[in-house]
Amino acid sequence: MSQFKTIEASQVTISELMLPSHTNFSGKIHGGYILSLMDQIAFACASKHSSNYCVTASVDTVDFLRPIEVGELVVMKASVNFVGRTSMVVGIRVEAEDIHSGTIKHCNSSYFTMVAKDDSGKSVPVPGLILKTEKQVRRFLKSLNRQEMKKKHRNETSKKTELQIEDLEILRNSHKVQLEY
Ligand SMILES: CC(C)(COP(=O)(O)OP(=O)(O)OC[C@H]1O[C@@H](n2cnc3c(N)ncnc32)[C@H](O)[C@@H]1OP(=O)(O)O)[C@@H](O)C(=O)NCCC(=O)NCCS
């Protein structure tokens, strides 16, 4: 396995015409269907980079910016933004194109953390990244910061702290909570 790979070598694009069978009750495309496609493209991209099958460890910021309509062409682009020892952060951009007008709207951008696994299910090291453009360097650094913030947040939230009187006071003052604790 090569020790370093370019980002371009594992970039993946998929496009799919949205069918009526993918709609929710309000006639728009179901968010869960889009998430499933995003997971598939993240899997393909990370597996290509690592030359191993991968699993999804976490998903960051899935904001549905605009609804997607039946008959629109959804285009998803994925690339590896960052690599750790066994993990990769795959950035995904989702756009939808109106077939008649050719108008393209940005619907979603998300980050999937994928971990490479060997045949026995053990996490395995992944190749490094060759960064060739300023955009690639910026994305890598942004991911690195996000990873560090997440680790810090995980450590803080995993510590079980005593409930403070002030915390309960916030709930007592909320009109949306009936505190029976
Ligand atoms: C997530 C998972 C792969 C962690 O693997 P592990 O080998 O047991 O644990 P490790 O602590 O060695 O973590 C491996 C890597 O995953 C990263 N990782 C683990 N949990 C993570 C999380 N919640 N978010 C982001 N990264 C995470 C670690 O930082 C580490 O990265 P690095 O090697 O680049 O430093 C493992 O818990 C797993 O297999 N989970 C289920 C995945 C799955 O089934 N996904 C589909 C859901 S339906």
Would you kindly provide a written description of the structure presented here, covering whatever features stand out?
Residues 8-120 form the HotDog ACOT-type domain. It comes from Leeuwenhoekiella blandensis (strain CECT 7118 / CCUG 51940 / KCTC 22103 / MED217) (Flavobacterium sp. (strain MED217)). Pfam families: 4HBT (PF03061). One of its GO terms (molecular function) is long-chain fatty acyl-CoA hydrolase activity. With 181 residues, this protein is an alpha+beta fold. It has one domain (4-132): Hotdog Thioesterase (Thiol Ester Dehydrase, Chain A). It has three helices and seven strands, in the order E-E-H-E-E-E-E-E-H-H. It has a five-stranded antiparallel β-sheet. It has a two-stranded parallel sheet with strand order 1-7. Coenzyme A binds next to strand 3 and strand 6.
